[in-house]
Structures are given as C-alpha cells and as structure tokens.
What we know:
Elements: H1 14-23, H2 26-34, H3 44-52, E1 55-61, E2 67-73, E3 80-81, E4 86-92, H4 99-106, E5 109-116, E6 121-133, H5 137-142, E7 151-165, H6 176-202
Antiparallel strand pairs: 1-2, 1-5, 3-4, 4-7, 5-6, 6-7
Amino acid sequence: MAVHAFASDIAFTPTVKALQSLKGSRRAYARMEESGSWQTIITPDLAAFIAEQRSVFLATVNSEGQPYIQHRGGPPGFLRVLDDRMLAFIDFSGNRQFISTGNLAENPKAHLFLIDYRHRRRVKIWGEARAVAADDDLAARVMPEDYKARPEQVLVFTVAAWDANCPQHIPIRFEAADVLEALREKDQRIEALEAELAWIRATPADNR
C-alpha cells in the first residue's frame, strides 16, 4: 500500500484537496489532518460496530478503471475481525459471475461500506483485498455457525484507513428480525397485563 502523509490522503488526492479549497472546506479538513486524521487500525469501537452488521458493500475496480459494488450479507458477525488490521468474510456461492474476484486479481485496492440504518451510522474502510480458497483453515474460523450457505471462497481485507460519517440524510430503518422481536415482547407484555387485570376483576378487594 502507498505511504501517505495523512491516512485521509488515501481519499483526499491533490485533485480532491483542490476542490475542497475551491468549495471552502479545505481549512476544516486540514485541521482534521493535523489533529490525527483518520484511523488506520481497527479500534474496539469499530470492532463492536462490525460485529453487529448483517451486510456490507464491497467496492472494487478493474484494470480499465471500471468500478463495481457488490453486496454481501449474513448473520451478525459474518464480517470477522482477525486482528487490528485485517477483516475477513465468507464469499458465499451465488451467481458465480466472479466480477469482484476478477477485479481484485487485477487491482487489489478495495473499499468496504457499512451502514447501520437503525442507529444512523456509516463507516467507510479503505484497503486491499484478496481471495483465499474456501478449503483453507481460515474458512472454518470465518464461517458463521449453523448458517445455511455454501462457501465459495474467503475474502481477506487489509485495512489502510477508515472514517465514520455523520448521520445526515440516513433514513431510520429496522431489521425485520428486530421488529419481530419487539412485537413478540409487546405481545408478552399485553398477555401479562391482561392476566393481571383478569385476576384483579375476579378477586375481591379484601383478598388482593
């Protein structure tokens, strides 16, 4: 990976910085750079956020500069933190187009985009990725337990820099499983209250 003066230089190229100057935001980002710029390791807070996610968007670019974005999902924890610089997830068998895999063979640079609609958080992660055979020992470590899907391969992602965006314009949405659990808890509470009310009605005041 290229060495940058600031971690954010992975995205803030000279052209981007020139546009920031033109649009009036360069001074604020220069202060951000001087105060520490973006993170380059997976912090405990980021690891906790990753462990809760059910999906991720993987961006790759081929040798002709054509970008491609692919969605990958699974149960919480399917995107696994291996250490403070590496992530991995099972690339489950799908339509077998292998566009992302082909792009990575030509250009290892990649990007992960994670969004939590419920808490209105999004995280952008820059780095490089590579494919590992599914029969590797790593697959057994990364495969979600009791998840009914066939592993095609493992994608290993090395983090170069990451940044968490503000929540502006992120709509609030809830996972279906979370909504069903909330409804189940509500129904249980209603049943308990109805039972309590029936007991009160059937029991003389002196015996309560």
